[in-house]
Write a structure and sequence with these properties.
The complex is a heterodimer of chains A (about 110) and B (about 110).
Chain A lengths: L2 E3 L3 E5 L4 E8 L6 E6 L6 E6 L3 E5 L2 E6 L4 E6 L8 E8 L8 E3 L3 E6 L1
Parallel strand pairs in A: 2-11
Antiparallel strand pairs in A: 1-3, 3-8, 4-5, 4-9, 6-7, 7-8, 9-10, 9-11
Chain B lengths: L4 E3 L2 E4 L5 E6 L6 E7 L6 E7 L2 E5 L7 E4 L6 E5 L8 E8 L8 E2 L3 E5 L1
Parallel strand pairs in B: 2-11
Antiparallel strand pairs in B: 1-3, 3-8, 4-5, 4-9, 5-6, 7-8, 9-10, 9-11
Classes of the chains: A mainly beta (about 110), B mainly beta (about 110).
């Protein structure tokens, strides 16, 4: 079956570093996305990985290991505004986003 | 480019009424998607358009739901004879035809059926 696992909740302190993990089991793989979603708002695109390794974009980095079916999102120098839900989504085949499989999201609380 | 725009932001309706939502995608994006999201869940795929053609519709979608994209630009999602279980956030997203293109979401329409 198709499945994506993420921790439900995480807590971290302002200025710290936090790593949000995502594991997936899908019939195929053609890319993994991370989205940020604040309460009551739409998801916002953060990063995309299709090859193994680390993609860095400012304070946010995303890592992928296809052989392990594993990704993580790394958030550095945490700010209060980073409190949000972080969604992992896998495109299981083709280049079309209608085949995205979504995790339930990890709710991150950043405390002062 | 002002991003994906959805209207209305909120809609409260009584059970049995029909509702229609509108989505204006990013202008150069030819792919448009409708999703539904409830609290604590990831987005659930509803339907997909490439230009004006509706290429896929989720099997989870009952025949009370219909979507159109008549000129390949804006899209509408109509729900007929609404039920309380239809209460959710309805998200529209668009993307380009590039393989790596992510979804760009609108701010959604929150539907409450009383």
């Amino acid at each position: 079956g198709q499945n994506i696992d993420q921790p439900t909740e995480m807590t971290a302190t302002e200025g710290a570093i936090v790593q949000i993990n995502c594991t997936y089991q899908t019939s195929g793989f053609n890319g993994l996305f991370w989205y940020q979603q604040h309460a009551g708002e739409a998801p916002t695109f953060l990063s995309y990985n299709v090859l193994d390794g680390l993609e860095e974009k400012g304070r946010f980095s995303s890592f992928l290991s296809r052989s392990k079916g594993y990704s993580y999102l790394l958030l550095k120098e945490l700010q209060m505004k980073d409190s949000a839900s972080y969604l992992c989504a896998v495109r299981d085949r083709g280049g079309n986003n209608r085949k995205l499989i979504w995790g339930l999201g990890t709710s991150l609380a950043v405390n002062p | 480019d002002t991003g994906v725009s959805q209207n209305p932001r909120h809609k409260i309706t009584k059970r049995g009424q029909n509702v229609t939502f509108r989505c204006d995608p990013i202008s150069e994006h030819n792919r448009l998607y409708w999703y539904r999201q409830t609290l604590g869940q990831g987005p659930e795929f509803l339907t997909y358009f490439q230009n004006e053609a509706q290429l896929e519709k989720s099997r989870l979608l009952s025949d009370r739901f219909s979507a159109e994209r008549p000129k390949g630009s804006f899209s509408t999602l109509e729900i007929q004879r609404t039920e309380q279980g239809d209460s959710a956030m309805y998200l529209c997203a668009s993307s380009s035809a590039r393989g790596t293109s992510p979804l760009h979401f609108g701010n959604g329409t929150r539907l409450t059926v009383t």
